[in-house]
C-alpha cells in the first residue's frame, strides 16, 4: 500500500515550504494527486523528487531546465546519475553557461576592487579596517 502525504507533511520531510511545493507543481516539477476535496496528496517517491529538484536548483539550473532533465536522472545512493545520453551534453552546456557567469562576476569584482583600492586610506575608517580592503587579486589585505 502506498503512503500518501499531505502537502504539510511533504514540506516538513523535505525541509521546504508548502509555497515552494506549489511553485514546483506550477513549474511541472511535481504532479500531486488531488482528493475529492481538492487537497494535494503526494507519494513517498515525491520526497526523493523534491530532493532532486533542490539539488539541481543548488547546482545552478533553472526550473525550466530541471523540468527537462528530471526524467533522465536517477538517484543512486544520493548521487544523481544521467540515464539519457543527450542529458550529458545538456549538462555540459549548462556548466559552460555557469562558468561564463562566474567569469563575468569575477571580472566585475576585480573592477570594483580597483575602484575600492583607489580610495584614499582615510576612507577605510568609514567602512572597516584596512584588513577588509582588497589587496592584489581582490583578496583582503593580509
Brief overview, please?
This protein is mainly alpha-helical and 142 residues long.
Task: Describe, in plain words, how this protein is organized in 3D.
The chain is 53% helix and 12% strand. The chain has helices at residues 7-14, 18-26, 45-58, 63-69, 85-117, 124-127, and strands spanning 4-6, 33-34, 40-43, 73-76, 79-82. A hairpin with a 2-residue loop joins strand 4 and strand 5 (79-82). The longest helix is centred in the C-terminal third of the chain and has 33 residues, at 85-117. The chain is elongated, with a radius of gyration of 22 Å. The protein starts with a strand and ends in a 15-residue tail after the last helix. The model has no long low-confidence stretch (mean pLDDT 89).
Topology:
Elements: E1 4-6, H1 7-14, H2 18-26, E2 33-34, E3 40-43, H3 45-58, H4 63-69, E4 73-76, E5 79-82, H5 85-117, H6 124-127
Antiparallel strand pairs: 1-3, 2-3, 4-5
Beta-strand percent range: 5-15%
What overall form do the CA principal axes indicate?
elongated
Unreliable residue stretches: none
Mean pLDDT: 89
Tags for this model:
three-stranded antiparallel sheet, 142 residues, mainly alpha
Amino acid at each position: 500500500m502506498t503512503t500518501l502525504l499531505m502537502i504539510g507533511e511533504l514540506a516538513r520531510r523535505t525541509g521546504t515550504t508548502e509555497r515552494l511545493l506549489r511553485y514546483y507543481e506550477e513549474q511541472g516539477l511535481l504532479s500531486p494527486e488531488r482528493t475529492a476535496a481538492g487537497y494535494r496528496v503526494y507519494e513517498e517517491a515525491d520526497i526523493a523528487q523534491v530532493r532532486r529538484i533542490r539539488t539541481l536548483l543548488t547546482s545552478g539550473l533553472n526550473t525550466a531546465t530541471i523540468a527537462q532533465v528530471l526524467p533522465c536522472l536517477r538517484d543512486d545512493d544520493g548521487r544523481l546519475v544521467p540515464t539519457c545520453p543527450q542529458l550529458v551534453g545538456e549538462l555540459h552546456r549548462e556548466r559552460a553557461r555557469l562558468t561564463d557567469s562566474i567569469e563575468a562576476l569575477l571580472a566585475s569584482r576585480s573592477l570594483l576592487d580597483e575602484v575600492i583600492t583607489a580610495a584614499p586610506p582615510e576612507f577605510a575608517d568609514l567602512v572597516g579596517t584596512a584588513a577588509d580592503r582588497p589587496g592584489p587579486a581582490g583578496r583582503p589585505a593580509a
